[in-house]
Specification:
Blueprint (H helix, E strand, L loop, with lengths): L1 H18 L15 E6 L3 E6 L10 H7 L3 E8 L12 H15 L6 E5 L1 H12 L7 E4 L15 H16 L3 H15 L3 H12 L3 H13 L13 E5 L10 H11 L7 E4 L7 H4 L1 H12 L1
Parallel strand pairs: 2-3, 2-4, 4-5, 5-6, 6-7
Antiparallel strand pairs: 1-3
Helix pairs in contact: 1-6, 1-8, 5-8, 6-7
Organism: Solimicrobium silvestre
GO molecular function, one term: hydrolase activity
InterPro entries: AB_hydrolase_1 (IPR000073), AB_hydrolase_fold (IPR029058), AB_hydrolase_sf (IPR050266)
Length: 294
Amino acid sequence: MKNHFYSVVRCLASLMLFGLFCQAYAEDNVSHSVLNIQVTGSGKPMILIPGLASSGEVWDSTVAHYAKDYQCIVITLAGFAGKPAVDTPLFSSAEKELSRYISDKKLDHPIIVGHSLGGFLAMQFAAQHPEQVGKVVIVDSLPALGATQMPSVTKEQLQGAAANMRDNMRQSDPAQALASRRMAVTSMVSKPADIERVMGWGAASDRNTVINAMYELMATDLRDDIAQIKAPTLVLGTWIAYQEYAPRSAIENTFKMQYQKLPGVKIAFADTARHFIMYDDPQWMFAQMDEFLK
C-alpha cells in the first residue's frame, strides 16, 4: 500500500509536467526579470510564492485575509501564467533576486509563504539565507519530491530520473498533454471554477520554463539542507486525494520523514482539502497560519 502511494505521488508529478504547460522583480505592473511582484497592504512583510505554472492570483483570498495587518508581497515567477519567460535558470535566479529585493526594500525578516513548487523555493531560500527570513509556511510541498518512492535514492539517481522525465515531456503529444493536464488539475483542486482557473494558468505558461522547473524540482534533494533553516516553520499537508491508495497515517509519515532534519517544524494535515488548500479549505489554512504567526 505504501509503495502504491509513492507511485501515485510520482505519477502526479509527471502529470503536472505533462499538463501544466503550453504556450526583475516587478512592481506597479512593470516586469524586469524573474520575479513579478504585486504589493498590497501594510505592516510586517509577508512574501507569497505560488506553485508550478500558477499565478500569484492563487493567493487572492490569502491577501484579503492578511492585508490589514501585513504587507503582502505576491510573486508570479517568470514564464508562469502569462508572464514573460527568461533565459536564466529559474530557481537560482529567483533566489538571488528575492534576496536582493529583501535587502533593497529593507524588509525586516519577512514571512515566506510558498505553495507546492513555491514551497520548495521558500524552504530553499530559508536554508540559503537564514538571516533574511522571519517565519516560513510551506503549503503541500516536500523537500525531495523525487525521493518519495525511494528515500535512499542518490543525487545521481534523482538527476537521471528527472532528466528522463524532462526528455519524455519535451516529446509529449499535445493531445495527450491536454488530457493529462485536466486529470492532474482535477486531482489537485475540487471546485469546477477553480479547476478552470488553474487550467488557464497552465495554458498561458511557457512550456520550456515549466519543463525545466519541474526538472529542478524532481532532481533536487533538500532533506539535508533544511537543517540550515533557522526560522520557525509550519508545513501544511493534504491526503484526501490519495485516500484510495494509502491511509492518512502513511502520508503523514512521508512528510515526517522528509522534514525530520528541520528543527522544530510543525506539520498539520487538512482533512477536507486537496493540493490547492487555499481554494478547497481556506478557513482551515488561515486558522493554522493565524495560530502560527501569533
